[in-house]
Specification:
Blueprint: E1 2-9, H1 16-26, E2 36-43, E3 49-56, H2 59-65, H3 68-78, E4 83-88, E5 91-94, E6 99-102
Antiparallel strand pairs: 1-3, 1-4, 2-3, 5-6
């Protein structure tokens, strides 16, 4: 598995309430998305940056989604190009689920 950390600058700072509304509007696009295990939406404390942490089954699955169309949509919605950094994710500790998972 891999984790992608996506960040982008916002044109103006947003409150936590504003960010929650923005993100809730896009959340349905990620439900049952092939290869996506989990997504966390992010907002910096000062409201100037936002993004997400995505857990993917593979880098290929992530790259398929992070196509030109996705990047264009992010830029239109939030006003800047996203920065994407990939990390290998060999072990996951899930305290809520009570499990530790090792990637194959």
């Amino acid at each position: 598995m891999i984790t992608a950390v996506v960040q982008f600058a916002l044109p103006t700072p947003v409150t936590l309430e504003e960010a929650s509304k923005m993100f809730a509007a896009t959340a349905p696009k990620y439900k049952n998305l092939p290869g996506l295990v989990r997504k966390y939406y992010l907002r910096s404390e000062d409201g100037r940056k936002a993004g997400g942490v995505y857990l993917w089954e593979s880098k290929a699955a992530a790259e398929k989604v992070y196509s030109g169309e996705w990047k264009t949509r992010v830029k239109l919605l939030y006003g800047s190009e996203p920065d994407i950094v990939y990390f290998d994710t060999p072990v996951i500790v899930d305290n809520a689920g009570g499990a530790t998972t090792r990637a194959a």
